[in-house]
Design a protein that fits this description.
Number of strands: 10
CATH class of the largest domain: Alpha Beta
Largest sheet: 5 strands, parallel
Radius of gyration: 19 Å
CATH superfamily of the largest domain: NAD(P)-binding Rossmann-like Domain
CATH architecture of the largest domain: 3-Layer(aba) Sandwich
Number of helices: 13
Distance between the termini: 34 Å
Structural class: alpha/beta
Number of domains: 2
């Protein structure tokens, strides 16, 4: 199997790097400045599971568009949501009739956009759980030991292409899992991301700091209830065990946990407010569901993004 990883940032660089380290056939599609940096210094990973520096196989959009690359068997799409449109233009020439597209973007809006562009048959379900970031030297730093990649057909059926993908992903230095309920898991991940993002970004603090503030615990639970209500109405209802796990995680006393969106906000970077919060608010509004706390978080992130130049 030949895999194209779109993006070599903290997520794509980590999973793609581990696959390359394990000897899998992996190529990264990157922008020219990132390509130059990687060719000069290599792809560097700093992790509790072991550090590594690789010399990855790289392509740019111009090279793919120029016809130098054959269609890939699978494409792991790891860009931020606000970069999806340009990324689709970049990797489109690498998509053939049998190519499987595996997005690990946040939220669910990307699913509709990818289906509209490439057709539903090309799309596989995918999600990752891994806290990583790029440091000031562009090294990929893993912030915790969690490193899971799950995938499966959106309709839950067993397929030869998913079996082949599972063989490709297994024993590559991270936890790989073929899921028969991947779409439900994607909605459930949105429950966690939207809840944690709204709580930490709106209140500008860690989970533990918000929980400890007067009324903080009730606020957190109210945010989770808003997110859960919308997702259960417009998507696939989360399992009760998932809901309870999210409630427990976001009300843990003294927790230093924050969302990646809050970390981006703190560092003055663009945020995925529209994909994680805004789209959920819109879907709820279209379904007649009021979500005042989520709406407040969305406005807050909108003000921040407009100050950053409008990228959210």
């Amino acid at each position: 199997m030949r895999l194209l990883v779109v993006g070599a940032g903290s997520t794509g660089g980590y999973f793609g790097g581990r696959l390359a380290q394990a000897g899998r056939d992996v190529t990264f599609l990157v922008r020219p400045p990132r390509a130059a940096r990687l060719r000069e210094r290599g792809l560097e990973i700093r992790s509790p599971h072991g550090d590594v520096t690789l010399q990855p196989r790289l392509l740019t959009a111009a090279e793919i568009g120029g016809g130098t690359a054959q269609p890939f068997d699978a494409i792991l799409l790891t860009v931020k949501g606000y970069m999806l449109e340009s990324a689709m233009d970049d990797f489109a020439p690498a998509v053939g009739p049998e190519t499987m597209i595996l997005p690990v973007l946040n939220g669910m809006r990307h699913v509709d956009r990818l289906k509209a562009r490439f057709g539903g048959a090309a799309l596989g379900g995918c999600l990752c759980k891994c806290a990583t970031t790029l440091d000031e030297e562009d090294r990929i730093v893993q912030l915790s030991g969690l490193q899971e990649l799950a995938y499966g057909e959106m309709d839950g059926r067993s397929s030869a292409r998913m079996q082949a993908l599972d063989a490709f992903m297994t024993n590559a230095g991270f936890d790989a899992r073929l899921s028969p309920v991947i779409e439900r898991e994607m909605w459930e991940k949105w429950l966690l991301l939207a809840s944690m993002g709204a709580v930490t970004c709106l209140m500008r603090g860690t989970v533990g700091e918000v929980e400890a503030a007067p009324g903080g615990r009730d606020f957190i639970l109210a945010v989770i209830d808003e997110v859960q209500t919308i997702i259960s109405t417009v998507g696939m209802p989360p399992r009760e065990t998932t809901i309870e796990a999210v409630r427990a995680l976001l009300t843990t006393k003294g927790s230093p946990q924050t969302s990646s969106m809050y970390r981006d906000l703190q560092n003055g970077r663009p945020v995925e407010g529209d994909e994680i919060i805004g789209d959920l608010v819109k879907r709820g509004r279209d379904a007649g569901i009021a979500a005042p706390l989520l709406a407040a978080a969305n406005i807050h992130l909108g003000v921040y993004s407009s100050r950053q130049g409008g990228c959210r």
